[in-house]
Write a structure and sequence with these properties.
With about 300 residues, the chain is an alpha/beta fold. The chain is elongated and about 75 Å long. The protein starts with a strand and ends in a 10-residue tail after the last helix. Helix 11 links the parallel strand 10 and strand 11. The protein has a six-stranded parallel sheet with strand order 7-6-8-9-10-11, sandwiched between helices. It has a five-stranded parallel sheet with strand order 2-1-3-4-5. Helix 5 packs across helix 7. Helix content is about 35%, strand content about 15%. Bound molecules: glyoxylic acid. The site of glyoxylic acid (GLV) has 7 residues, from loops.
Length: about 300
């Protein structure tokens, strides 16, 4: 039997590749990925593709790879993969759940604290030499204790964020479990989004949703950018309809809606939710394990449902 061939769209931590190199020939792309046409040409002989969330694995890539058996995404989200096209060819798709749950939950709290206590805004102020000294009424934020955290999405990450809320004395409600979506919008002081991107969640937070929020409330998004209508969010911030927002994900990464850049009460992170050394290595390891299992004729560890 010939040696299976694995295309890895972008560089992975070097030591994670060893188990794969023992059983397959491996073609690894540069950190920034190959141009689309080149990716299409390179997958021609692939039995497996290891992709990242910045790679769109659409029907044309899948069609170009007649022996493809598995697409292993190094991410928990897999909206970048055409699942229908994969399913039509019985190609297995896997993701990297669990290993990143804690890292994303910790980062969500970093954003909640950063925006409510004005950390990034204060840092900018100090750096531009605008700090005049301590004053009782200077840069007050919002205290978390006793407030309501509304979580949209009751998956692993949403639940991990909820677990950490006890440390801050916050009350937690989940949309559609404890309260309706509208009740969550109306009653929460912090709203944090932890739902996958799908046709059902695209622009879930639109103008209609934003006007329902308390004017003192903050919106946090560490899920996928298109769940929030950025144009609507910029409008709501202009109108003072909410106190602030903290975003890790955007509709057209790496572009950020220009109006969001002008608001001091918005924290903008460059998609870092799972970015700890521990977790990023574990994600790469898990994607590699998924491919090794499928190439050996065994079930994958973490197939997407
Ligand atoms: C990151 O955004 C992921 O889906 O893993």
């Amino acid at each position: 039997m010939s040696v299976p061939h694995v295309v890895i769209t972008r560089r992975l931590p070097a030591r994670t590749l060893a188990p794969l190199e023992a059983v397959a020939s491996v073609d690894v792309g540069p950190s920034e990925g190959w141009p689309r046409e080149e990716l299409r040409a390179r997958v021609t002989g692939a039995d497996a593709i290891i992709s990242q969330l910045t790679d769109r694995i659409g029907g044309e890539i899948i069609d170009a790879a007649p022996s493809l058996k598995v697409i292993a995404n190094v991410a928990v989200g897999y909206d970048n993969i055409d699942l229908a096209a994969a399913r039509a060819r019985n190609i297995i798709v896997t993701n990297t759940p669990d290993v990143l749950t804690n890292a994303v939950a910790e980062f969500t709290w970093a954003l909640i604290l950063a925006v409510t206590r004005r950390v990034a805004e204060g840092d900018r102020l100090v750096r531009r030499g605008a700090w005049k000294g301590w004053a009782l009424d200077f840069m007050p934020g919002m205290e978390l204790a006793g407030k309501q955290l509304g979580i949209i999405g009751r998956g692993r990450i949403g639940r991990a964020v909820a677990q950490k809320a006890a440390a801050f004395g916050m009350r937690v409600v989940f949309a559609k479990h404890d309260v309706s979506f509208d009740e969550l919008l109306v009653g929460s002081d912090i709203i944090s989004i932890h739902t996958p991107l799908s046709d059902g969640t695209r622009h879930l937070i639109d103008r209609k949703a934003l006007v329902r929020m308390k004017r003192s409330a903050y919106l946090i998004n560490t899920s996928r950018g298109p769940v929030v209508d950025e144009e609507a969010l910029a409008w709501a911030l202009d109108q003072g309809l909410l106190a602030g927002a903290a975003l890790d994900v955007y509709e057209r990464e790496p572009d950020v809606h220009s109006a969001l850049l002008t608001h001091e009460n918005v924290v903008l992170a460059p998609h870092l939710g799972s970015a700890t050394r521990e977790t990023r290595t574990a994600m790469a390891d898990l994607a590699v394990r998924n491919v090794v299992e499928v190439l050996a004729g065994r079930p994958p560890v973490t197939p997407v449902s």
